[in-house]
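Hi Q.,

Before the meeting this afternoon, I wanted you to have the nicotinamide-adenine-dinucleotide prediction in hand. No need to reply - just skim if you have a minute. The sequence and ligand are here:
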Amino acid sequence: MGRIEGKVAIVTGGARGMGAATVRLFIEQGAKVVIADVLDEEGQALADELGEAAVFQHLDVSKEAEWSAAVATAQSLGSYNVLVNNAGIVTVAAITDTSVEEFTRIFQVNQLGMFLGIRSAIEPMKDAGGGSIINISSIEGFRSQPGLSAYSSTKWAARGLTKNAAMELGQYGIRVNSVHPGAVYTLMGGAARNSEEYLNEHTYNMLPIPRIGRAHEIAYVSLFLASDEGSYTTGAEITADGGWSICVRSPDMPCS
Ligand code: NAD
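Predicted structure with the ligand bound:
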């Protein structure tokens, strides 16, 4: 018996990276999953590989009109009760070099897309007798780094939206939590530029857990929140960052 046997989930940005790892783990643990992404080829290939428990649905999370098809696909699989708002994009530019168009694009996908996902899940999850909404933020939702003004703004906003939704929806048995990964080895997290070994040796060796994270390590956090094991957890911020947000090790300090 899987930990989320019988549940039906939508995972946005599910075609690759952390989203794909979440899709795989959820199916392994008994759920049916809608892979919702703009990457049609990758999403369909993943669904074909995973069999009947996975269905690909084209979804641009920033387009209000596209959400109803994703929800309908989920409902065709059973009672829709888990949403992982994972789709995200990043841009790295100084504030002075960030155009209104670029800032708006990041806002539309990371922040507006999350809002639309939550809003479209409320009635179906009420009908299902409850549910779990998992918003993938970042440790850049607690702090920021140079060049991340647009991205970091949306990841902070994810925390506020999560808490508001948790307040409004708890009465319907719908839990809403945010997950805050540190650096994770995906295309967004450095895989497009460097090997995992290189990043472990040169970039992330100063973390309390001295390496970059792996996509499945974040998927396991979402699995807990999606499952009934998380039944009293709502409005929470769960960090999975190898300890990056507490400190980095310094050769000048003892015990480090
Ligand atoms: P990724 O780039 O590998 O995957 C992102 C996925 O989102 C892709 O499949 C992409 O097609 C999809 N996507 C992008 N725009 C979309 C849209 N408009 N509609 C639907 N899908 C869309 O990145 P990842 O590292 O797997 O990131 C997943 C989430 O984790 C993102 O929200 C990201 O901000 C967050 N995150 C990543 C890291 C990291 O180091 N990788 C760290 C913290 C948080």
